[in-house]
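Obj: model holo form, ligand = magnesium ion.
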Amino acid sequence: MKKYVYYFGKGKAEGRAEMKELLGGKGANLAEMARLGIPCPAGFTITTEVCTYYYEHKRTYPASLQKEVGVALKRIESVMGMKFGNSANPLLVSVRSGARRSMPGMMETVLNVGLCAATIPGLIAKTKNERFVWDAYRRLIMMYSDVVMEKAAGIEAAEGKGIRVQLDKLLHELKIGKGYASDADISAEDLKDLCERFKVRVKEVLGKEFPDDPREQLWGGIGAVFSSWNGKRAVSYRRIERIPDEWGTAVSVQAMVFGNMGDSSATGVAFSRNPATGENKFFGEWLVNAQGEDVVAGIRTPNPLNESTKSEHNRHLPSLETAMPGLYKELDHIRVKLEKHFKDMQDIEFTIQEGRLWMLQCRVGKRTGTAALNMAMDMLGEKLIDQKTAVNRLTPDQLDELLHPIVDPKAEKASEPVAGGLPAGPGGACGQIVFTAADAVEWVKQGKTVLLVREETNPEDVEGMRAAEGILTARGGMTSHAALVARGWGKCCIVGCGSLHIDAHARTMTVGEKVYHEGDWFTLNGTRGYVYAGKLAMVSSTENPRFVHFMKIVDKFRTIGVRTNADTPDDAQKARQFGAEGIGLFRTEHMFYGKHSEQPLFILRKMIISRTEGERRAALAELYPFVKKDIKDTLAVMDGLPVTVRLLDPPLHEFVPNSMEERKKLASALGITVEDIAKRADALHESNPMMGHRGVRLGITYPEITEMQVRAILESAAELKAEGKTVLPEIMVPVVGIKNELDHQRAIVDAIYAEVCAKYSLKKIDYLYGTMIEIPRAALTADKIAETAEFFSFGTNDLTQMGFGFSRDDIGGFVPDYLKLKTLPADPFQILDQEGIGQLVRIAIEKGRATRPKLKIGICGEHGGEPSSVAFCYRVGMNYVSCSPFRVPIARLAAAQAAIADGARAATGTKPAPKKTRKVTKKATPRKRK
Ligand code: PEP
Ligand code: MG
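Output (holo structure tokens):
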């Protein structure tokens, strides 16, 4: 017969820690603690299978459950030396929920079950504490009538009319009537009267008597916990956290112990190490003569657990270490035992009842990024965990936290954001707001710190974006211009903040009713997308040798390469320091934005406005030295590592100047009129530029543009080779959908290659010729494309755009609704849609490698730095991922964790490991690291 009830208590347990699916997190860990001989009040757990049964059988239980509960209850009675419902020596129990994964505060609990007319006098005689007993009874009536008789019965009370509110009112009235200042003034006699009034009110409001039978109370409590699995709060929490409905909750019934039985009783919560810093010191809070909820409720200031963790706020308060030294020692032993056993930092709850210590709960404790790093490295040093475990102890988000200055969490807690948007660039930033890029540059020159606030940004804003501490836009999605640029620089940025109404002319910004002016201070949390008015404190993440050491260990387990998307020698250098093993995407066009771009941009504009091939070639010849310098400097910085240089990608009209002043300058340089420029600009105008004349299509129409770029790449390579450098350029053609496009460009590359070899008297120059896979047709015909391409790099920004038919610059208008309605689980421009776009990726890899088995494959879309997408790239057999410099460590960690998880799956035989991927991008050249 199926077992539904698992007993635990006094050194014995039928369950264990590994049984979380059946017993829930709380039940499984209570069983484990009992097994370890740790003093926890005896109890039993009703399995999650009963929850499933309950919902499948019209809220009834399996036939054998009642008997099993009866047997387990007897065992509790014998271990605890008390009897449930017994008038002389009554046992009280708590009834609590416990899902596989913690769902804090989302389900119900009933305490003090078993108190009734028959047991109250016995408990008073035993405790000699009448007030305590009536207080416990009053709490039981409040909780039970609310949780069991109202909520679980499906009664939806009107706002402010719920039974709990009504009983609270009675309590409040009593205090006012008697002139009591605090709960402590209420006498036993008062409480006894109050309980009677409570029961009358329960009958009036709910139409039923409060049950006086302990067994009825127990089964009422069990049913209420099961039905709270489908309560509103729990259901919506599960949707957010993506916890499956089928999991169900377990119910743990456990003997009550009381921390509020006088001055030799106490209660507390603690962490086996400091959860904020990771310091290996027992850390926690406690209160004498109190119940668990009093510590967390914040009504009384809790005391520090020990002397060494006192702060200036609680220095004057007594520690448990000095107030109850023997018990503290016992608790400290338990802390050591639990850490040794669970091999991780534990979050524990304890109660001291009349000088006796009881453990009520333990679980793995939550921690900050800094704490996670310090604990992982400490525990590794203590030989508590191995290297694989250490690598898995930091989430990529926690790593991200370590890499950027952040808004001080304490300051954030004390403030309310005025607006929210998409978290496009990580970390925090604080500064005075300005509304134009020019102002940003100007103010920074004057020594001010600014935040650039724009409707949305465009390439002309880059200089101001660079100067600003952080960027805030009212429009745009996660791959909008502002987001891409900011992330590339590791700059704090929030985009798509729809509640901002910006008036750049008036230099104001309105949020709701409030108008803010240029120069007002704001703080951004770019990791979470929160906007605060005012100056919030920042915490800087400093260079940390432990971080460097940790990343070395991470790399031991990683089997795919991590490159960077870098557009300047500076970014390339930074990325190398972060551990990038090459450049996966060098966007040539970025030399026309930002610092030192005026001259090349002007020449590029001349080229664009040219009417004949001759004029165009002349402009290209003028542009050549700039392009070559940019490429050569970057190749030099990446000495020994591969660099993928992408040919010009954006539609040309993006570079046509809009301002009259710029147009005049250009017209006079070209000896034409401003009207001619306007005409040319009109001719370049496109209705759908993202699907227009861009990428390879430019190279087909104007082969001379490709020629110039390829020459710059190959001549740079030839010259650097002569200087003794190892350069590995990879020429990448963007926006390809047809093999013939790639062949057309290949012919140009071959011709230039021959010319350059002859010019430098070289037999060969090492380079690869490949393409981006960013158009669905390219993915579907990858076998053909691989006949010409020597490598693929997935441009998942465009692949997502064209696969979904979602304009990447306009998703701010509708994707937020999709997310709210759960039409989409996540923004597909942030997290790769493995189900749909992922299929295009798989097909392209399979087809490409069918033609060319050793085809080198990577990703350079924004997803290359997003942890779950990195794991996907690993699983489908890519050779590397490429991402912005600041995301390089995150991608390294995500790739290592994917490989470890895969090894674990292979070891347990749950799923065959994919073919071992080759480390094509890893070179023997020593890498510079931070
Ligand atoms: C892409 O499309 O994924 C890509 C990397 O190119 P871009 O973002 O420059 O279009
Ligand atoms: Mg693209």
